User: Fold this.
Amino acid sequence: MQPSKINRVAFWGATALFCLQIGFTAYAQLSLPQVAEAFAHLGFPAYFRVELSWAKFLGIALLLLPVPARLKEWAYAGFAITLGSALIAHLSVGDGPSAWGWAVGTAILWGLSYVCWRRSQRDDAGAALTERSVERATRGVFANG
Assistant:
């Protein structure tokens, strides 16, 4: 298998698992009372839980849909801030690994997805540059000949 194909498979695998995990947490934040209690335990107001859930759904859509790269970059940044903040919040109230382990696991999926996405962006840019170079070279050859 070619490196770009391996990267594409790794990207979609990591991104699918990441989006499923984030989607599940967003759904749980909106509907499960024990998750609302966990947010209260961390010191967050109830409205923040709802806002965060909808922001997660928006971020998932941006990662899965064909949107400009800048929007995907913002979605990845938002998820990085969310996951880092979740870890800090759990650690600051003295929660153990059973509470913050999910944030770390999800952050690993985030990292795999992001690295593979950046590689695909680099590969796409290189392919486009090569196509333009060939096009210019052939135009110059045929214009002189």
Q: What stands out?
A: The chain has a mean pLDDT of 89. The chain has five helices and no strands. The two ends are 40 Å apart (CA to CA).
